[in-house]
Amino acid sequence: MWNEKLTAPGNAEDATIAEAVHRTAAGAPDQAPAQPFARATPVTAPSSAAVAELREAILAKLAYAIGKTPQTARERDWFAATALALRDRIVDACRAGAGQVPNKRVYYLSLEFLIGRLLSDAMNNLGLVETTRAALRDLGIELDSVEGAEPDAALGNGGLGRLAACFIESMASLSIPAIGYGIRYDHGLFRQSLEDGWQKEAPETWLAEGNPWEFVRPEATYTIGFGGHVTMQSVSEGVIRRQWHPAETVRAVAHDVPVVGWRGRHVNTLRLWKAEAETPVELARFNGGDHVGAVAARARVEAISRVLYPSDSSEAGQELRLRQEYFFTSASLQDLVRRHVGERGDLRSLPDHAAIQLNDTHPAIAVPELMRLLIDDHGLTWEDAWHVTTNTLGYTNHTLLPEALETWSVDLMERVLPRHMQIIYLINWMHLEEQGRHGRANAAQLASVSLIEEANGKRVRMGHLAFLGARRVNGVSALHTDLMRSTVFKDLHALDTDKIVNKTNGITFRRWLHNCNPELTRLAVETVGEGVLDRPELLTGLADHAADAGFQARYRAMRRARKEALAKVVAERTGIAVDPESLFDVQIKRIHEYKRQLLNVIETVALYQAIKAEPNRDWTPRVKIFGGKAAPSYVQAKLIIKLACDVARVANDDPDVAGRLKVVFLPNYSVSLAEAIIPAADLSEQISTAGMEASGTGNMKLALNGALTIGTLDGANIEIRDHVGPDNIFIFGLDAAGVQARMDEPDYAKAAIAASPRLAAALDLIGSGGFSPDDPNRFRPIVDSLVHEDRYLLTADFDDYWRAQRAVDAAWNDPAAWWRKAILNTARMAWFSSDRSMREYAEEIWRVRVA
Ligand SMILES: *Cc1c(COP(=O)(O)O)cnc(C)c1O
């Protein structure tokens, strides 16, 4: 039975986890794997036999894989032993699912996977949370501390990387056969500390003590070339073959992390590539005494997977970045091409059996790379290769901000990827020719759809390249997709109006509800039944209880417990005492001007001034909580962090506002910290300039957990409003069209400041050193940038934001109404599950069946 399901021979090198497990299982007795996940709910009491079995498994791992005794084991050792024991269960679940070659696989290429910790995911999806807790408790160990010993896998910057992590978990949960491809960075996103309010970056070291989740697959190694030249050779009458001779080569070595889906039904693979030198050390040089020079070449190539670029929504114009992008794209395509050839033989059937999704333009080089592999290495004609490429690739756009649209200079491309540049030129030539044939040859039109931008030196537009090479191109919220059609991709869209589709982002409820908020999950299960764990739409049933005083009390108790836990974290990390009775007002996300943390800080200053002016009014006690990292080179964003910290210091020390306003900047925002903050949030700040946030996913996590949103009509906020209802969200400010119109008005910022005494007073205090007496001019650049340019329309939206915040105050003072709104948010957010997103991609983009 196992044997007939074996994949084609010759395919052994690129075994993914399912394939490898299956192969080992071929010789094993044909027995069904243990069913460790009979009932996966946070309330199930585990059987004592299951607990004993897992306890012994953990002890065995501790002894034989870690080499420790319970007496000498540290928390980190217990974590590794527990992870290894659970990994065995995942392998068992995999055995259950391994077998047939799936008809079609999804390949999700992403330069970033912002995963966080995996232990709670694995336990929860295997239905083993309580079993593991009991097994460890038998050994005198607390599960919470073991979970705390796992470092975050922070292989991403923010929303884009977190989306990829949610998607691979959802694909596994929906049993969509998929492989995620990315880079195994030695150092993920930097660790942020605050020194006197200034951001300091330190390298992050998640791999310092190994990674118990991964399987190294040295047999799945590919050679990646850079530089060199291209030769032409006539192979037969009229057929010329081009061959690339790279000057430099690097090995890409696969490291597989199993991704187990809900109830352990399906396991997928996240395959991360590590760069290794062909020659670890130049022995002759080493023996000649040049110990450093002997490893210099190695250091250069291995730099490719050394660190994650800490750039978020802005171009990282570095050669190393291009090398990273090509490195992981080429390795992934070589891997999937080899798998296809092994399983099916003919590459012309690739579109029937593979769907390759490009998460943003970082892997857009896949277009010419797939063409090169098909034509140069596998002998397809240009026409066949183009057909295969454009029916296999999909491209997800994540931003329309001009500074974030990736382009590479033609000079650099010719130097690093000469063969790809030839292919890009040919694609572009054929594309522009076709425009001519359709009578669209006017110079402006051609310039706008060309792959080469010529405004300031020739540059390749990676978004355009991905657009042409893909069968479907998607935006990530309804508004963003509309803006794609009407702005950046307007002329390309006109050529093929079916190509752009919308796929609104989602979040995995397993992590962002079940794992991070077990109290709310239990409340939901007890109220609407256990089916809610499988079918989030059952959350709607909570709406029937939204006005019920008893239910509200339980919901409030959940929030109260979470706020007390967060208050502890705040005290530990910042020394600031916050009162869980206060409204917790949260803005957590990358620090970026378009996200407008500055608007929130200025409103905080205005509130501080208002409280000082009238201390005896019935102010709603608030704690403003900020979290987020700034790109290390982003000077203005770092200054905004400093401002938030300086405002915090002054406000928190001022007895006039004590008990009414506290300000906290929690350092080192991460997935794990998000999991602690989100269930404790009362108010979710989603205040980007309309038209600039493609979707947002933080907005979804917070609303699902019952925080009310204060936000602009931007990204997915619009769809959140449509779902939760306009009475249960605080919307303010200009919409995207209003923003465009306002930007065309001359001196709009000066006019807005002149019209708002409150805004003017807050800016005065900031600009004159009210929060920086040690350096009164410190924040002049911030105030000046608002007066002179205000690219993000803070001044335009300030008064309406203030109004909306006071509406929040009023709502908080009517608890029965507030908690009704909160419960309705939880009840109506089901649509934002990433399972829904993945079903839509599967159906309309990938054309794969979902069970
Ligand atoms: C969800 C998430 C993000 C994205 O947040 P946005 O508010 O959508 O920008 C960024 N970082 C982490 C750690 C997250 O969990």
From TrEMBL:
Q: What does the UniProt keyword field contain?
A: Allosteric enzyme, Carbohydrate metabolism, Cytoplasm, Glycosyltransferase, Pyridoxal phosphate, Transferase
Q: What is this protein called?
A: Alpha-1,4 glucan phosphorylase
Q: What is the stated purpose of this protein?
A: Allosteric enzyme that catalyzes the rate-limiting step in glycogen catabolism, the phosphorolytic cleavage of glycogen to produce glucose-1-phosphate, and plays a central role in maintaining cellular and organismal glucose homeostasis. Phosphorylase is an important allosteric enzyme in carbohydrate metabolism. Enzymes from different sources differ in their regulatory mechanisms and in their natural substrates. However, all known phosphorylases share catalytic and structural properties.
- Enzyme nomenclature, EC number: 2.4.1.1
User: One GO BP annotation here?
Assistant: glycogen catabolic process
Recorded hits in Pfam families, A to Z, give:
Phosphorylase
Question: Which CDD domains did the record assign?
Answer: GT35_Glycogen_Phosphorylase (cd04300)
Where in this protein does the record say N6-(pyridoxal phosphate)lysine is found? K701
Q: Which organism is it from?
A: Methylobacterium gossipiicola
This protein's cofactor list reads: pyridoxal 5'-phosphate
Q: Which InterPro entries match?
A: Glycg_phsphrylas, Glyco_trans_35, Pyridoxal_P_attach_site
Q: Which SUPFAM superfamilies match?
A: UDP-Glycosyltransferase/glycogen phosphorylase
